[in-house]
Backbone:
């Protein structure tokens, strides 16, 4: 559970060269640093601070009736080191976790949350533009090497034709990554390399496409670059979180988007920005805000009609230069609670409040094990080397013998474990 952020700096004053800082927490406790003689040091507390307005992954117990949503990607298809493409992680108080979209670059932020791969197995795709699923390969392979023991599951819409649907995309993803699959299946285990696809009808209107353990996920169509794209609503414990897919304004989001606690919706970069910063020709920069996407003003209109408890605008490169014209565009129409999303922004939803904070996560996070049984390699699978390659092996036994013998002894490995690897056929 989050600690209240209503921390007040109550007093800060200077007395004859001695700085005395005192702050009050909202239960009235005061922590008064001890002032020493003139010119001396001031002690400060060394315990746990009551609030730092930020989220350090793995340090916050979620209340049973609370939802945490983390933006792991909020940007555009063009790669940017500081902002990945669309991905939202929804964590429920009972521990269930759902990824909505997994756009290019987003796994760097997901990985930094240090959540074991076994808990990140359910992915819901709004549509098949790479800025919404370009990092599936990273979750797939990275989670596999990180010890995931089960296949991934991907939900996504059908299209107007078979080759425009999610099933086709995933089947051909598996074909494209066949070399990766075959080689990891030998060295690790084939099971985590599977992907189970759940394709549903993109035309379904507020249809339930997932219904398990108290969670219902619904979809409805959006209008974006062709038939297929959808928006999702996740319902749990009386809460409703909407992850809006790319879309031009449409009537369905007004109809099914009501009563949301959090409504994540695109507010696209302005046409000026698309032309002057993104390099689009004027005609496309204009059309993109009407025909495929939602302008800031349109997003404001949709939020003012659906009135969520809290609105989240995303799908723009969020920087000092760009965010204010978009913000002001939304504010021309909508005056309710609003976040201008960027990567690692997060929200906690309880009955009483919805808070926005930032995730502070490490640049160098390691995989975290979930515990439980690990999968052993399948002994029936062997690396598919021909002697053409293995005959090229250089014998380096002598320089490695010292550490390798010690390592084998320390870890109880049989002395002949390497025999047969890279064996020459002559
Ligand atoms: Zn798109
Ligand atoms: Zn997009």
Residues:
């Amino acid at each position: 559970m989050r600690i209240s952020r209503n921390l007040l700096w109550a007093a800060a004053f200077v007395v004859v060269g001695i700085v005395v800082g005192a702050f009050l927490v909202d239960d009235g406790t005061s922590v008064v640093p001890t002032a020493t003689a003139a010119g001396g040091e001031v002690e400060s507390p060394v315990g746990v601070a009551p609030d730092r307005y930020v989220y350090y992954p793995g340090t916050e117990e979620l209340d049973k009736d609370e939802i945490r949503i983390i933006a792991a990607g909020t940007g555009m298809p063009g790669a940017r080191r500081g902002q990945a493409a669309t991905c939202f992680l929804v964590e429920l108080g009972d521990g269930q976790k759902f990824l909505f979209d997994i756009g290019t670059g987003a796994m760097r932020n997901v990985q930094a949350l240090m959540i074991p791969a076994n808990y990140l197995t359910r992915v819901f795709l709004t549509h098949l533009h790479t800025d919404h699923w370009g990092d599936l390969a990273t979750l797939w392979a990275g989670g596999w090497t990180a010890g995931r023991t089960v296949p991934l599951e991907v939900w996504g819409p059908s299209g107007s034709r078979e080759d425009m649907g999610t099933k086709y995309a995933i089947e051909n993803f598996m074909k494209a990554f066949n070399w990766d699959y075959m080689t990891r299946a030998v060295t690790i285990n084939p099971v985590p390399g599977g992907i189970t696809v759940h394709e549903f009808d993109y035309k379904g209107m507020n249809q339930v496409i997932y219904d398990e353990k108290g969670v219902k996920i619904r979809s409805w169509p959006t209008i974006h670059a062709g038939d297929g794209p959808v928006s999702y609503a996740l319902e749990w414990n009386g809460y409703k979180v909407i992850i809006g897919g790319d879309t031009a304004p449409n009537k369905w989001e007004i109809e099914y988007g009501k009563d949301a606690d959090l409504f994540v919706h695109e507010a696209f970069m302005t046409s000026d920005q698309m032309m002057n910063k993104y390099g689009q020709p004027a005609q496309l920069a204009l059309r993109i805000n009407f025909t495929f996407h939602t302008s800031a003003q349109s997003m404001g209109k949709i939020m003012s009609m659906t009135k969520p408890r809290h609105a989240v605008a995303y799908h723009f490169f969020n920087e000092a230069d760009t965010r204010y014209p978009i913000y002001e565009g939304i504010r021309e129409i909508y005056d309710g609670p609003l976040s201008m999303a960027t990567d690692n922004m997060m929200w906690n939803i309880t009955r009483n409040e919805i808070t926005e904070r930032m995730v502070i996560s490490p640049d160098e996070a390691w995989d975290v094990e979930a515990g439980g049984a690990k999968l052993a390699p399948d002994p029936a699978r062997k690396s598919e080397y021909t002697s053409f390659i293995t005959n090229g092996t250089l014998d380096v036994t002598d320089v490695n013998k010292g550490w390798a013998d010690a390592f084998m002894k320390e870890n109880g490995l049989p002395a002949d474990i390497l025999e047969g690897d890279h064996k020459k056929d002559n």
Remarks:
- The CA atoms of residues 161 and 227 lie 9 Å apart.
- The chain has three domains: 1-51, 54-359, 385-426.
- DSSP finds twelve helices and 19 strands in the chain.
